[in-house]
Write a structure and sequence with these properties.
424 residues, UDP-N-acetylmuramoyl-L-alanine:D-glutamate ligase, Protein-Tyrosine Phosphatase, Chain A, 9-stranded mixed beta sheet, globular, UDP-N-acetylmuramoyl-tripeptide-D-alanyl-D-alanine ligase activity
Length: 424
């Protein structure tokens, strides 16, 4: 079956499923394979649960006429998504960066949805599987699609751009993330800039943070661009009014009070303002969208308890975002401050150095207590409290006084530090 023929079938059954636990009637089941599972083995179950067809690559599971045999299921899914993206008329905004991708994506979506029929990446499904699924969620009515692109190795963004073919692009920042795969900070910059490379080569449009020296230098000779800046000049001026605890900003004398914690979220909000303004969303609607956005999924959330307050930012962490979180936490007004910091993953050979630097930074700050959790932090040389595992910390949690405190919880996803909320 050709991609065009499969696309004709997809137009009849426009729901894709890759998990038999989430089968919906008349969907197309793609039998993807992973390190610990083989979707081909579940094809018959998918059909039994209501899938119209199952796309498989293992002939031994081709037990009915509802099985479509292909050479490679993942490649077939990706090529179908590419075909569908070209078939639809929606404008695509590509989004990548080291930190803040998902929050920025959700803010842009909230703003553009005020005027346009908009779809966006769900959650952080931003990889070689998630991007195709996002593209296949575009409908004939969709006007703008915001596609988040993640990567931990070179050429991944370049590949995703070939699928999504973005008309516009925005890079949140370049930070110390996934150093294990990228090798160095320069490797991060080169890899994330693959979005720029695609946009430049295809005469597409770039949104950018004019105050980010790396972005500004890389876009110096580009004419199809639009930037924002916290300083007067040729770019859209956006002023930060404060961040204690929530970020507030001002655009054309209109104040916007977000519900996002952290000065670092100023640029995320600013990007949404810039892009909304470019697409002629009224500024009053931009204000409503940003002020009504409430963060979830352990990202920049404030949780008010009876006698203390938690700043929960435990979705993920890398040295750049950890430093930003600590600096923001230092600025908050509070009688007492306690920080729980979990290991940062995927740093490769830089892990020892980066964890020591964060431990040193935290030790210099005026916090009442700092607790380091995880094998990497446990190896650091510091007088701060250290625990080799979350379970070790949990055994001691009853001895920690939280009365009248503001508590920061920050760590990589694998640390699952949100478990602390219930324990505290």
């Amino acid at each position: 079956m050709t991609t065009e023929q499969l696309h004709t079938l997809f137009l009849r059954y426009p729901v894709i499923c890759t998990d038999t636990r989430k089968i919906t009637p008349n969907c197309l089941f793609f039998a993807l394979k992973g390190d610990n599972f083989d979707g081909n083995a579940y094809a018959a179950d998918a059909i039994k649960k209501g899938a119209s067809y199952a796309i498989i690559e293992d002939r031994q599971f081709a037990s009915s006429e509802k099985n479509i045999l292909v050479a490679d299921v993942l490649s077939t899914l990706q090529q179908l998504a590419k075909f569908h993206r070209e078939y639809c008329n929606a404008k695509v905004i590509g989004l990548t960066g080291s930190n803040g991708k998902t929050t920025t994506k959700e803010l842009i979506t909230a703003v553009l949805s005020k005027k346009y029929k908009t779809i966006a990446t769900k959650g952080n499904l931003n990889n070689h599987i998630g991007v195709p699924l996002t593209l296949l969620s575009i409908t004939p009515e969709t006007e703008i699609a915001i596609v988040e692109m993640g990567a931990n190795h070179a050429q991944e963004i370049a590949f995703l751009c070939q699928l999504a073919k973005p008309d516009y692009g925005y890079i949140t920042n370049f930070g110390k993330a996934h150093l294990e795969g990228f090798g160095s900070e320069e490797g991060v910059i080169m890899a994330k800039s693959e979005l720029y490379d695609y946009l430049f080569a295809n005469n597409k449009f770039v949104f950018f943070n004019a105050d980010d020296t790396i972005q500004a230098s890389r876009l110096n000779l580009v004419t199809s661009k639009l930037g924002f800046s916290a300083h007067p000049g040729p770019h859209l001026p956006i002023k930060i009014l404060g961040a204690d605890p929530y970020v507030s900003l001002e655009v054309r004398e209109l104040p916007i009070e977000s519900k996002l914690v952290g000065r670092y979220n100023f640029t995320n909000c600013s990007a949404a303002v810039l892009i909304g303004d470019y697409f002629k969303v009224p500024l009053t609607d931009i204000k409503i969208a940003l002020e009504n956005y409430i963060p979830q999924n352990n990202r920049s959330q404030i949780i008010q308890k009876t006698s203390f307050k938690i700043v929960l930012d435990a979705y993920n962490a890398n040295p750049t975002s950890m430093k930003a979180a600590l600096e923001n936490f230092q600025e908050l007004k509070s009688a007492r401050k306690i920080a729980f910091l979990g290991d940062m993953f995927e740093l490769g050979n830089a892990a020892e150095k980066e964890h020591q630097e964060i431990a040193n930074l935290a030790a210099k700050m005026d916090f009442d207590q700092v607790f380091l959790i995880g094998e990497n932090f446990y190896k650091t040389t510091t007088d701060l409290h250290k625990y080799k595992s979350f379970d070790q910390l949990a055994k001691s949690i009853g001895n920690i006084s939280t009365e009248e405190a503001t508590i920061l919880i920050k760590g990589s996803r694998g640390m699952a530090l949100e478990r602390l909320v219930a324990l505290l």
